[in-house]
Amino acid sequence: DQQVKQNSPSLSVQEGRISILNCDYTNSMFDYFLWYKKYPAEGPTFLISISSIKDKNEDGRFTVFLNKSAKHLSLHIVPSQPGDSAVYFCAASEGAGNMLTFGGGTRLMVKP
Amino acid sequence: DAGVTQSPTHLIKTRGQQVTLRCSPISGHKSVSWYQQVLGQGPQFIFQYYEKEERGRGNFPDRFSARQFPNYSSELNVNALLLGDSALYLCASSRDGPKTQYFGPGTRLLVL
Question: B61-94 burial, b if ≥16 CB within 10 A, otherwise e?
């Protein structure tokens, strides 16, 4: 039973436009959510997180939105750059710092 | 500051053998977690250790074991290797308390 799902395996976006990556979860006990970016042959790199007491968190070009009633979160990247091309994972935990449950990932391709 | 380091980077073993993977956390981080990432999937939680005590265990067989040392480094051991154990093994560290987990580059294990 997948508790965290990323339903789009891939996404292609033009450079300069907005990239929107989506993630759904089923476990209502999750209260801390993160996005990681992964390049081939490297470990996941932390991008941005959000606690369930917030519905939005911004860090530069990256914004994460959380809709608790829909059990849905999204990552917005504006503007998208070719260097953003990677696999993006959303992850969730019951309490920050505890075991992470990951989605299956979305491969983002940003075309110049 | 140095990030999370893992050794070895690559490893080839045959079925039935045993393997030990090593992880050094970021300086000041007391919690270490291990994840397994099979090709095409998101990382799956194996173990979490904090102050040398096991704090969480994922849905993995008893062939998998781990420990944390006084300097907060950690080892993951896998006995009686199966072909299905071939994966990228990721180590993540975090400070005590509700903090983000930061990942190392991983050890790629191939079981033949």
Answer: eeebbbebeeebbbbbebeebeeebbbbbbbbbb
